[in-house]
Amino acid sequence: MSQSAPIQTPIIIIGTGFGGIAMAVTLQKAGFDNFIMLEKASTLGGTWRDNTYPGAECDIPSALYSYSFAPNPTWDFKWAKQPQILAYINKVARDYGLVSHMRFEQGVVDARYDNGRWAVTTTDGTSYDCQFLVSAVGQLHHPALPNIPGIDDFAGSSFHSAQWDHTVDLAGQDIGVIGNAASAVQFIPEIAKTAGHVTIYQRSANWVIDKGDRPYTKLEKAVAGRLPWLAKLYRFGLWGLGEYVVWPVIKGAKMRAAILRAKNRWDMGKHIKDPAMRAALTPSYPMGAKRILFSDKYYETLARDNVTLVTAPIKAVTSKGIKAGGDTTRDHDVIIYGTGFHTNPFLKGIAVMGEGGVALHEVWADGARAYMGTMMAGFPNLFTLYGPNTNTGHTSIIFKLEAQAGYVVQLMKAAVEGQVSVRASAADAFDTQTQERLAKLAWDKVDSSWYKDGTRLTNNWPGSSREFKRRTDKPVWADFMIVPKTQ
User: Fold this and answer.
1) Where are any strands of DSSP class E within 155-287?
2) Same fold yes or no, 7-142+342-483 and 157-206+291-337
3) DSSP E strands, 295-360
């Protein structure tokens, strides 16, 4: 459906995942009730709607991977599974009356700024006009396939983990899995239960630590529901583990890193007895340089008779299977790609034009950057949630999303009916300081990871979550230009 007159609204939020919903609720609490949420799919939920692979679950304890304003005493597991997380997001949206604000099958393809307003166009040609535009599209929603010769030649079934083909019966099949990171360590143990054989093609090892998952008891659920202060204390304790144990490791704390390495060796040693295999599964990079993975089942699965680990580099995909190292080709019935997402460039698929017709993708040609991960110079009234340099390697992104949404509301209030933009000098200074700090952390000790765009660390915040919260509590107003309503 296309129309001549654009739909007018003060605020547009792109996305209905955790970020979009956090932004919408924060707007409501601040008295902003007139906004529209644009969603590319037919239902809400973001990454938890799209990722339905077997074993999909949170990689942060569920008590922390939830909104502070919407505690959930009914989590079934300490680490929530995808169906319950999606149900939780839907419940929050219903409880706060957000569904009426949502427009589905409205993927944004174009956003242009002119004279204090943003003109937004969606996939079906619908036009919108708004004062404030908030991107809450996240970082992990464009599946990435590896650049391997012959990838289109495979005659069997193949798919990415984020586009799981549930019509393919994996029972008894010979399955090749390319990738062994966050999604793979969740689905591999599940498919190995019924597969004839699973071959895991590992490019590099990951630090994997048991997470101690288990169902919550009826008593624990009852206590969480009746004593919310105790549930908050528990949530605070989970936050503290990331903030005071894992974050120091990323900063280079040797003793804490040694403890986590010892934990990894212990967890691995319970199942993997072959010294050569243990060596192959032990990363050569520092703890925390790449995402630390949590799984109670991965090493146990690798010890199964029907699972093989291949560390030789993949040379090609053939019509029958995968060629790795030398001339060895292994035949497979199914290939599953657990190869992550395109995290760079940010705002992939959306043409964003700021003041003077400047394209955001040109500004980001050498890597994405944003002041406090939220605003770009030359793009007034445009805000990004979970934008450049806001990702976390040690705690829940929901904590940061809530803080960032509150920050955005303060900027909106200051602009009233006018515009707010970050000064170029402030944005440049922030970016320089951010990259200098990141260069001192474990993330910079590897040549490549999804945290990086070339040599530039574009995804991660350089400090603690406490610092992020403190710096978003109150904007540094000298870093912004506030212009009254455009005449």
Assistant:
1) 157-160, 174-178, 197-201, 208-209
2) yes
3) 307-310, 314-317, 321-324, 329-331, 334-337, 351-353
Q: Dihedral through CA 358, CA 362, CA 368, CA 370, nearest 10?
A: -20
What is the separation, in whole angstroms, between the first and last Cα of the chain?
32
For residue 3, is pLDDT > 60? no
Please work out, in degrees rounded to the nearest 5, the angle formed at the alpha carbon of residue 358 by the alpha carbons of 476 and 105.
90
Tell me which H or E stretch contains 283.
none
Q: pLDDT for 81-124, tens place per residue?
A: 999 999 999 999 999 999 999 999 999 999 999 989 999 999 99
Confidence at residue 486, expressed as pLDDT on a 0 to 100 scale: 56
Please name the fold of domain 7-142+342-483: FAD/NAD(P)-binding domain (3.50.50)
- Residue appearing with tokens 């460039």: 345
Which residue stretches of 30-118 are H helix?
47-50, 82-95
Tokens of 6: 């654009």
Contact 35, 24 (CB under 8 A): yes
Per-residue confidence (pLDDT) for residue 188, from 0 to 100 = 98
C-alpha 60 chain-centroid distance? 12
- Kind plus residue range of the DSSP H or E element containing 36: strand 35-38
Q: What is the pLDDT of residues 188-218, one digit of tens each?
A: 999 999 999 999 999 999 999 999 999 999 9
- Integer Cα distance of 329 and 34 in angstroms: 59
Q: Is the peptide bond before 345 cis (omega within 30 degrees of 0)?
A: yes
Q: Residue 437 burial (CB < 10 Å; 0-12/13-18/19+)?
A: middle
At the topology level of CATH, where does 157-206+291-337 sit?
FAD/NAD(P)-binding domain (3.50.50)
Helix (H, G, I), strand (E, B) or coil at 22: helix
User: In whole angstroms, what is the distance from residue 133 CA to residue 383 CA?
Assistant: 6
pLDDT at 184 exceeding the cut of 80: yes
Length of the chain in residues, anyone?
487
Query: Which whole-number Å values give the CA distances from 427 to 269, 374, 413, 476, in the listed order?
Result: 48, 10, 21, 12
Name the pLDDT band for 437 (thresholds 50, 70, 90): very high
How far apart are alpha carbons 481 and 474 in whole angstroms?
A: 15
| Residue-range domain boundaries for the chain | 7-142+342-483, 157-206+291-337
